[in-house]
Predict the structure.
Amino acid sequence: MTIKTISSREVYRNPWTSVREDVIERSNGQRGIYGVIDKDPASIIIPLEKTAEGEFVYLIEQYRYTVGGRFVEFPQGGWEQAEVVPEDLARGELREETGLEAERMTLLSTLQIAYGVMNQKQYVFLAEGLTDGKPDPDAEEHDLEVRRVTVAEFERMLLDGEIVDNCTVAAWGLYKVWLENGRPAR
């Protein structure tokens, strides 16, 4: 290990997040401080619908307080539980935010979100065989809007900077590589 933890103290906690400050020592003997945000696992879901009219994805739009604006992204989130069954989490988030149920869920991979400052893994799922239902958003998601767009429109939104959520961009890139390589589910 190139960095050793000398001490660690929690400086903040709420039901969603904890923040700690670690005193560390690098392999060259130099000491420093790391601020670490700890969050429980999350999922991000690519709800993909293939019809005779074409391919569509479902997106959500909501206000993101930290950056002061409304943004479009794939459904995603966590349950504030350290131990989760990844597919149950993904199915739950998809239903909660969009009302959609998926016949098939394929785990594409597990990514780390902003690991320079945060310790949170995110399970990336492809959801297919979608059927409509009723959304059941959390209280903080009261302003959430569901959007269904063609894949071409979605990719235009990515390139035009209308979608800036790095998790959405990473999930789509992962899906495209997975699709091109014919990779089986993990």
